[in-house]
């Protein structure tokens, strides 16, 4: 590489409490702040048929109080201490995080321990009903009421077969959100919210001995339990084997061509090669798709690729092209196929590979620039790959991938017979009332 | 013993340790030979360096009928230089691991470079070339114009964007540039060509009225020399800085419904104009507005989200629109969020009840205390990255505020009493002086909203 890589990895220490809670610490005294991040090894892939969205709805309930914390007390106490906080749910995990002024670190640990050990003492029907409505409004706001809002859900469902743990997305369906009961939530907590199913990382301006003593004090007496079943098997053939296609006629502003390709699992060298391939092909304004579709053919206003890294199922490569002017999707699709075939045959040029590696390096620096970003990455490597120290080799691994490896993964995976295609055709004024498809009506019910 | 009795051992809520003092960083100022003003701020450990440029090209300076020319120019700055084609320029930026974002807004054009410290010189060279000698190629400008025309259609379909467009059109007189979309409308964008873009560049972009804010780990960097050899190569005849006219807005209480048949939610945007950051009451207004709608435990979400479940979240906020050195500028005050269609009128009714109760009874000391603790305490987190510090310093520059503004703001905030916060927020959100924009299904929401008596209701087509 012509450009030098950034120096030095993170200093990381690990501990494990008797109840199985894994603890990861990383000191950094540059700013008087400390980040606490707790990953529970449960996500939407653990949900069962008829209860999609439960992991995410449950995440909301974690902010509704526990034995010693009032309803919304978690937010009040953290913000009142000058901290920020939230939680998110994905296919593979649920995370909770607080970033605190360093002198308030102990409060965040006390709060996380209280809900890990005693959520059910406070969880009631009122919270359940209220947060069900809030989550349904979250779904409307983020997916149902915006153009192309359900594309992610549709493409995921096309990429993973019915019944597969990744077939549905974390937001869940309206019908399942309506069907979830308080008893479902209690069972979910008893099954998955255990110290031995979590990793706690703490990063920033901290005293390691004192911090470990606090963790022991607050989390140490929470009993371990082993009710968790492994997630349903996510094993699938490496490629889909045929092209799957759905056409959506909806009131959207322009035609769109979207696709998802099955790619190698996160954590493998091939996944890094795929990341580089997608970066060369579709990330930024020097990428092949942008140059071809937006600059040269002028058939698109936006064109790009992104990578959804998954560890328990094939990762997905996402393509999103919004057509411009009067361009047809046939023109666009032919151009995309031509570019992918050329890339599969020739691979990236040396200059393209260098640019892609520099972009990924910058994104990585960006994630690690805050204590909260570092805490989240440490949990990710601990939960998904068993070792938080892998964080320090992540970037060198990407920089080590060769052009031939990038070409090979593109040739094997970025093929028409390994993709789900989603096509949007705008409805005309006259047909707008009658043409909404079934899924959309169900979602809006 | 109940099934839900926890088995863990409890401890009392811990008390905080000793806080480490923190202050918003003070930048140093110097000027390059070409007249460019520089603010420098060394942040140890921040390996991504942020360079924020403030270019004195306000939207109000756009020629009549050419709304959007500033935006097209801003976008065209990264479409090649005297030595690099558009594709090559994008490639060089990416090779440096850099990003270059440009944006034209009412006060100025902003250009933001982020680049790893190890490649700062390369990044600054590209930024300098983009400002000094942008190619402004006719074919790329034609493409940017076509893309903007498509983008307008997408904005029109997005409820939040549509609401903002309608509110600005309602609040401001048609003659004020504030009333019209920042990046132009279909009729004006169609008229933009290379000549118009170049003329705007020649008239308004020059180092003597521009500022560069550089923030990050600058260990071992001779910044004045590095800047002289990059941004310092940019030259243009000096001119007077732009003048900013006063801002007026009509906040007669009224409701505009933008009809969006079949919408499963209604987008709410309730606003008026108020003080900008020059006003002595700004800090008190930030504090009071946070208590009203800054987070999910604020007054609005406590009811609308956490009691009623009408929404994923509603926020109250204030933002500067256009400021002037003499303090004649104004800001936008607003409440924004979306609610399920059936809850539209009930959510508005609750909002007005919350505002009336606030005016009648004021904030509590506990609310004030928690808000101050949050707003002051969260500052070290908010300003952890170089990019966030640079953006705030650049905002100060474009709003004609002193470099010490943000640091003083935190000191002032900590000293405010409950009464001052109440006074400011009650003055900011008077229930009878709010313009309400609703983007939603008029056939369902219009009648119940009329019955609320919060102002005349007009329905417009999307």
Structural description of this entry:
The complex is a heterodimer of chains A (445) and B (462). With 445 residues, chain A is α+β, with helices and mostly antiparallel strands. Chain A folds into two domains: 13-219, Metalloenzyme, LuxS/M16 peptidase-like (Cytochrome Bc1 Complex, Chain A, domain 1), CATH 3.30.830.10; 244-444, Metalloenzyme, LuxS/M16 peptidase-like (Cytochrome Bc1 Complex, Chain A, domain 1). Chain A has 16 helices and eleven strands. In chain A, strands 1-2-6-3-5-4 form a six-stranded mixed beta sheet, with helices on both faces. In chain A, a hairpin with a 6-residue loop joins β9 (300-308) and β10 (315-323). In chain A, α3 (105-118) packs parallel to α8 (208-219), α9 packs across α12 (350-368) and α10 (288-296) packs antiparallel against α11 (329-346). Chain A starts with 12 loop residues before the first strand and ends with a helix. Chain B is α+β, with helices and mostly antiparallel strands and 462 residues long. Chain B folds into two domains: 28-233, 2-Layer Sandwich (Cytochrome Bc1 Complex, Chain A, domain 1); 254-461, Metalloenzyme, LuxS/M16 peptidase-like (Cytochrome Bc1 Complex, Chain A, domain 1, 2-Layer Sandwich), CATH 3.30.830. Helices cover 39% and strands 19% of the residues of chain B. Chain B is built from 17 helices and twelve strands. In chain B, α1 (69-76) crosses α4 and α9 (282-293) crosses α16. The chains are: A alpha+beta (445), B alpha+beta (462). At the A-B interface, α2, α3, α4, α8 and α10 of A face α2, β5, α4, β10 and α12 of B.
């Amino acid at each position: 590489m012509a450009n030098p890589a950034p120096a030095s990895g993170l200093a990381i220490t690990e501990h494990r409490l008797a109840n199985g809670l894994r603890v990861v610490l990383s000191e950094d005294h540059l700013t008087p702040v400390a980040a606490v991040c707790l990953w529970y090894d449960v996500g939407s892939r653990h949900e069962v048929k008829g209860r999609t969205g439960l992991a995410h709805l449950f995440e909301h309930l974690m902010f509704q109080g526990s034995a010693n914390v009032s309803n919304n007390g978690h937010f009040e106490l953290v913000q009142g201490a000058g901290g920020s906080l939230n939680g998110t749910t994905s296919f593979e995990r649920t995370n909770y995080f607080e970033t605190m002024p360093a002198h308030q670190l102990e409060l965040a640990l006390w709060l996380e321990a209280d809900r890990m050990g005693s959520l059910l003492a406070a969880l009631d029907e009122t919270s359940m009903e209220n947060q069900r409505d809030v989550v349904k409004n979250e779904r409307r706001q983020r997916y149902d009421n915006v153009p192309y809002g359900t594309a992610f859900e549709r493409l995921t469902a096309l990429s993973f077969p019915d019944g597969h743990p990744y077939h549905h997305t974390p937001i869940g369906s309206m019908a399942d959100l309506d069907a979830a009961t308080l008893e479902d939530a209690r069972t979910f907590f008893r099954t998955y919210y255990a110290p031995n199913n979590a990793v706690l990382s703490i990063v920033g301006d901290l005293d390691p001995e004192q911090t470990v003593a606090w963790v022991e004090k607050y989390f140490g007496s929470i009993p371990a339990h082993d009710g968790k079943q492994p997630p349903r098997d996510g094993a699938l053939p490496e490629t889909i084997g045929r092209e799957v296609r759905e056409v959506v006629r909806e009131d959207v502003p322009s035609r769109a061509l979207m696709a998802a390709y099955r790619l190698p699992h996160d954590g493998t060298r091939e996944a890094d090669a795929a990341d580089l391939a997608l970066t060369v092909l579709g990330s930024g304004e020097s990428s092949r798709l942008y140059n071809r579709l937006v600059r040269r053919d002028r058939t698109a206003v936006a064109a790009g690729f992104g990578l959804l890294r998954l560890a328990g199922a094939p990762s997905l490569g996402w393509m999103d092209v919004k057509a411009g002017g009067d361009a047809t999707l046939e023109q666009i699709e032919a151009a995309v196929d031509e570019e992918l075939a050329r890339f599969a045959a020739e691979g990236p040029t040396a200059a393209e590979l260098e640019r892609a590696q520099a972009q990924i390096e910058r994104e990585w620096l960006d994630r690690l620039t805050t204590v909260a970003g570092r805490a989240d990455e440490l949990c990710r490597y601990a939960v998904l790959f068993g070792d938080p120290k892998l964080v320090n080799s992540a970037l060198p691994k990407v920089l080590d991938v060769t052009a031939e490896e990038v070409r090979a993964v593109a040739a094997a995976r970025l093929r028409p017979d390994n993709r789900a295609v989603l096509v949007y055709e705008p409805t005309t004024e006259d047909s707008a009332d009658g043409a909404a498809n079934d899924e959309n009506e169900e979602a809006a019910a | 013993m109940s099934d839900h009795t926890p088995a863990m051992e409890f401890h009392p809520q811990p008390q905080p340790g000793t806080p480490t003092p923190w202050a918003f960083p003070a930048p140093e100022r110097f000027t390059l030979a070409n007249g460019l003003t520089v603010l420098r701020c060394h942040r140890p450990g921040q390996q991504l360096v942020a360079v924020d440029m403030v270019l004195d090209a306000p939207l109000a300076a756009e020629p009549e009928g050419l709304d959007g020319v500033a935006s097209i120019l801003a976008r065209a700055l990264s479409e090649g230089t005297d030595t690099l084609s558009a594709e090559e320029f994008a490639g060089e930026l990416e090779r440096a691991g850099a990003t270059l974002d440009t944006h034209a807004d009412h006060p100025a054009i902003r250009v933001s470079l982020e680049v790893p410290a190890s490649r700062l010189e390369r990044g600054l060279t590209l930024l300098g070339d983009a400002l000094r000698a942008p190619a402004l190629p006719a074919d790329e400008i034609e493409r940017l114009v076509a893309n903007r025309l498509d983008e307008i259609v997408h904005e029109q379909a997005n409820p939040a964007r549509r609401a903002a467009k309608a509110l600005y059109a309602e609040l401001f007189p048609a003659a004020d540039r504030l009333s019209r979309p920042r990046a132009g409308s279909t009729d004006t964008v169609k008229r933009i060509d290379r000549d118009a873009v170049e003329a705007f560049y020649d008239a308004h972009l020059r180092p003597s009225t521009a500022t560069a804010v550089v923030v990050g780990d600058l260990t071992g960097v001779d910044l004045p020399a590095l800047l002289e050899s990059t941004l310092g190569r940019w030259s243009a005849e000096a001119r007077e800085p732009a003048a900013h006219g006063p801002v007026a807005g009509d906040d007669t209480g009224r409701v505009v419904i933008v009809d969006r048949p079949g919408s499963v939610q209604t987008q709410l945007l309730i606003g008026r104009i108020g003080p900008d950051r020059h006003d002595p009451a700004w800090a008190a207004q930030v504090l009071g507005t946070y208590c009203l709608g800054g987070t999910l435990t604020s007054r609005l979400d406590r009811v609308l989200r956490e009691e009623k479940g009408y929404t994923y979240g509603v926020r109250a906020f204030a933002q500067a629109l256009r400021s002037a050195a003499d303090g004649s500028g104004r800001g936008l005050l607003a409440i924004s969020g979306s609610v399920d269609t059936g809850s539209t009128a009930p959510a508005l009714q609750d909002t007005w009840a919350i505002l009336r109760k606030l005016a009648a009874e004021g904030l509590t000391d506990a609310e004030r205390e928690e808000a101050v603790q949050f707003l002051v305490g969260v500052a070290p987190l908010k300003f952890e990255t170089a990019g966030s510090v640079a953006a705030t310093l650049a905002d100060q520059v474009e709003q004609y505020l002193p470099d010490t503004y943000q640091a003083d703001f935190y000191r002032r905030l900590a000293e405010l009493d409950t009464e001052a916060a109440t006074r400011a927020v009650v003055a900011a959100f008077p229930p009878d002086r709010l313009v309400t924009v609703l983007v939603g299904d008029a056939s369902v929401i219009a009648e119940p909203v009329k019955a609320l008596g919060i102002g005349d209701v007009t329905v417009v087509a999307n």
